[in-house]
Predict the structure.
Amino acid sequence: MIYSSTRDSSNKTTALKGILKGIADDGGLFVPDEFPQLTMDEFENFALHTYPEIAADILSRFIDIEYDELLELTTQAYDSYDTIKVAPVAKITDTQYIMELWHGPTLAFKDMALQMLPRLMSKALERENGKKVLILTATSGDTGKAALEGFKDVPNTGIVVFYPNDGVSDMQRLQMTTQPGSNVHICAVNGNFDDAQTGVKRLFTDPEFNKQIEAAGYSLSSANSINLGRLIPQIVYYVHAYSRLIKKEAIQPGDKVNIVVPTGNFGNILAAYYAKRMGMPVNKLICASNSNNILTDFFSTGEYYADREFFKTISPSMDILISSNLERFLYELAGRNSDTVRDWMTDLSEGKEFAVDPDMVDAMGEEFYADFCDDIATQAEILKMLEDHGYLIDTHTAVACSVYDDYKETTGDETVTLIASTANAFKFPQDVYESISGGRIEDPFEAAKGISEETGKAIPPQILGLYDMPVRFTDVAEKEDMGAVVLKALEAFNE
Ligand SMILES: *Cc1c(COP(=O)(O)O)cnc(C)c1O
């Protein structure tokens, strides 16, 4: 498969090269030149196969690696999942199903891709050059931990994660600072998430720093959600879920389904859109946002207006104003005209807004329905799902469920619907506890205990284990010193 940049379609690459690069030199994102097609026979056949088998099949259509070799990688990647099923589909009602995407090592859906990405990168390194790869990441929470778990002890890779000293939750900090592995380093940065993010971006473009990294035998790469190696593995769980609905006889082969996704950077829902383009029968893709509702406005007006207030919500992984992966959908919307996309992106970076043509707004409306809910509705939804269905959800999944309730009421649509559940509820214990009990416990472990007592559900071992795990990383750096932190970490990796 050949891939093109969204900002210059004559700029081509292969999947493995694209995975190593992360982003195109022109600033664009790599997109496949065509969508491989799945027949309904294939969907029915997938109902008889395991998750790693389906994953190897889908990946083999996008990446130049043989099926058998991929199957080894997917089997390893999803072996670390703590249940027999990788991405179970839970039945809530006859028409409402939830894809549980958080059974991986860090209890967030990001594991689905970040358990695969390092393995794909290792393969790419074997094929493309002999260098080792160094992953630099700034995180506001979930990505850092999921990337650390994915890359820990992977041969020929190292990873350094920076997080804002006062910008992550207690549980998220502990998850990172206790991280095992001989090729990992974690460091707090004095400042907020933007400071950490800007610091990392600066390192990527600093020639002197890059020279030093190269001298140490490494090349730089990133693990954020615009990397093809994160996008492609995310298509798999939609195909898998559709095959499971067939198996459960919830649908007949060929029946359309709705897909609801709690959205931040637009990576997860974009994978659903790609699954649709590959032949999965989809009625509406429902894009659910929190109070940072820039996408809701964009889908209704065609104007993307980023110069607006930023809200800190109880679904922090969706607190985003620039949804990077939207660019890949814009490329399709523009009829794959990279000049148009480049103009929109220039408008966005220079004037903080861009607008698509009015006729494109109708075209978007055919594919997507977008809406949002605030923190109060999010908390009410957590309580409602527990009371009505005995089903515990986290703050992000609750945004999706709440938007879906409104969608159903507004449209009367009875189409069978898959809702993406993106995190385990115990990852956000204080807010989930408050939602179901009305009281507030500030200590995260006490709050987790509270949820367990209220619901009878066990605290996951990934959370319980943090309680007495030794903290390995206590460094706090100034923004200016991030490069020195990385170089020092490399010395330790090489020992
Ligand atoms: C990252 C994340 C999201 C948003 O996913 P995108 O692909 O960025 O849209 C939603 N929920 C949780 C729990 C996340 O970690």
In short: The first helix runs from residue 15 to 21.
